[in-house]
Specification:
The structure is a single chain. It is built from seven helices and eleven strands. With 258 residues, it is an alpha/beta fold. The chain has a seven-stranded mixed beta sheet with strand order 3-2-1-4-5-11-10, with helices on both faces. The protein has a four-stranded antiparallel beta sheet with strand order 6-7-8-9. α1 crosses α4 and α2 crosses α3.
């Protein structure tokens, strides 16, 4: 799906204040990262790299992981224009099966990437890898869509977007019993001959309650720090539209060569 909607993605999220979001992430790092200023940061599900670039501008050495080649293509083009290619490593990998070259201090995951893990098996696989690649007491900072988002913004709504030579129709179907929302995506893209090619895909997001998310984080070896409804650190509930979660990786500190 994200290869199809790559040209629309930043337009869909045009109202997102990445600068303010990055301020919030840095404040979480200041409050909860115990080893000084983090240096190595992983952006998991980085998409077009908006947050990856924002954090790179602030001096962090970034790794961006995403499964969509087209989304990464947009990210790499932007990084090249800004002269940040030497500061960012982009990897085309799955969130549930990624490999890094070493550990990182902080992992961030923005814009409800975790909701795309629609089974607990996928969720546990992702959390296990995040835990594995974080340093002891490293931070996992991410957001999920809450109940209100699924029931009102997603619900059974239909959205239409247009940019350049492409039109996207996005139709949702939410099942509250299964806590799953299916997205039926149709993209029409104009070809050189003036005719439109049609592409279709179906993707799904799962609504996770805070209780379930906290349990799976703890089972994966994380310490729960908190869940917030906004960047002002207001405590979140399941009724919030977007929920920002902070967790700390708990594992032994290596003290020498074995």
């Amino acid at each position: 799906m994200y290869d199809m909607i790559a040209p629309f993605y930043d337009e869909v999220n045009r109202d997102m204040d990445y600068g303010r979001w990055a301020d919030f992430l840095e404040e979480l790092m200041r409050r909860h990262y115990p080893h000084g200023t983090p240096q190595l940061v992983l952006d998991l599900g980085c998409g077009t790299g908006r947050m990856t670039l924002e954090l790179a501008r602030r001096g962090y050495d970034m790794t961006g992981v995403d499964i969509s080649p087209d989304m990464l293509g947009v990210a790499m083009e932007t990084a090249e224009k800004e002269g940040k290619t030497g500061q960012i490593l982009f990897l085309c990998q799955d969130m549930t099966a990624f490999e890094l070259y070493g550990t990182v201090d902080v992992t961030v995951s923005c814009l409800d990437c975790i909701n795309h893990l629609t089974t607990t098996r996928e969720l546990d696989a992702c959390l296990s890898l995040v835990h594995n690649y974080l340093v002891p007491d490293g931070l996992f900072l991410f957001d999920i869509n809450g109940k209100r988002k699924f029931e009102t913004v997603y619900a059974d709504q239909v959205y239409t977007m247009q940019t350049g030579d492409s039109v996207c129709i996005w139709e949702n179907s939410y099942d509250p019993k299964r806590r799953l929302c299916d997205f039926y995506i149709t993209v029409f893209r104009e070809g050189a001959d003036g005719r439109y090619d049609r592409m279709e895909d179906v993707q799904t997001e799962r609504m996770y309650t805070l209780r379930i998310m906290k349990k799976h984080l703890q089972d994966a070896g994380f310490e729960w720090i908190g869940a917030y409804a906004d960047f002002d650190f207001t405590e979140a509930s399941d009724e919030d539209e977007r929920i920002y979660i902070a967790a700390r990786c708990k594992k032994p500190m290596l003290t020498g060569m074995e």
